[in-house]
Design a protein that fits this description.
With 269 residues, the chain is of the alpha/beta class. It has three domains: 97 residues, FAD/NAD(P)-binding domain; 70 residues, FAD/NAD(P)-binding domain; 48 residues, no CATH class. The two termini are 38 Å apart. The N terminus is likely disordered.
């Protein structure tokens, strides 16, 4: 029994578990129970209600239970208690809590919006000359909608570039440019060969959305060698199904060790 919070995580792991159980004679598919807990009225709110309802339908078709309008309040290792008072017996809990600003900014005496530093349209922090913020730590106003830009990678990359240009402009005495950007789109996979996407305001679902997600993911990967490895792996998956094991070489283990060491070092500082 497992409970997940995160649509993509749920879809992928549900498929993996159900594909794998046939290799274990002592286990049965009837023993598998996967539940996703979502606080909103529909899944994937960033993609709109229509695609959110579609994602829920596809997850339910794959025997995933969907609980909406509740949050995980506590977990004692065997029992999950929800904010609505209900509880679920579970041996596995995966928590996907979304984006959170770095704790480095906690001590700054600045105005905030849902934990993020409130900046103006040129990414400067009002009342603090020479102080700027961008990315996950910044609440950047959207002058067109009156809301705030979402903390996504495509926004953060462009905010960082504009902040650098505006810092340079300030030093040189040039006029500053406001941050104006419209999201190109968002995509999500919800299980094997199924996805949802909104590209330039147009909705896609099913196999087409899944294919778009893979194509864009592949295009964003650095280095040709990495693209080729992923493309080869995905092609094999289309014809032979999912692999349930992964072999690590000594080189892979050393790379993982070095990455963990770098993460720990950044966390300590």
């Amino acid at each position: 029994m497992a409970v997940f919070s995160g649509v993509e995580t749920t879809g992928a792991l549900n498929d993996l578990v159900r594909d794998t159980v046939r290799f274990y004679p002592s286990l049965r598919a009837e023993l598998i129970r996967v539940v996703i807990v979502h606080p909103g009225t529909f899944l994937l709110p960033e993609l709109g209600e229509k695609l959110g309802r579609y994602a829920e339908l596809k997850l339910r078709e794959r025997k995933v239970e969907v609980i909406k309008g509740a949050r995980v309040a506590s977990y004692d290792g065997s029992l999950i208690t929800l904010s609505d008072g209900n509880s679920i017996a579970a041996e596995t809990l995966l928590w996907t809590a979304g984006v959170k600003p770095s704790p480095v900014i906690d001590q700054l005496p600045v105005q905030r919006e849902k934990g993020r530093i409130l900046v103006n349209d040129v990414l400067a922090i009002p009342g603090f000359a020479g102080l700027w913020a961008a990315g996950d730590t910044a609440a950047v106003p959207d002058t067109k909608t009156g809301n705030f830009h979402p903390p996504t990678a495509q926004h953060g990359l462009r905010e960082g570039r504009l902040a650098a240009r505006n810092i340079e402009a300030t030093i040189l005495g040039r006029p500053l440019k406001p941050f104006i950007y419209k999201s190109q789109g968002q995509l999500a996979t919800i299980g094997r060969r199924t996805g949802v996407a909104r590209i330039f305001g147009i909705n896609f679902s099913g196999f087409v959305a899944w294919w778009l997600w893979r194509t864009i993911y592949l295009a964003k990967l650095p280095r040709f060698a990495a693209k080729l490895r992923v493309m080869f792996s995905w092609t094999l998956d289309l014809f032979f199904g999912r692999e349930i094991e992964q072999m690590l070489t000594m080189r892979d283990a050393e790379e993982i060790t070095h990455r963990l060491a770098r993460i720990r070092a950044r966390t300590k500082t």
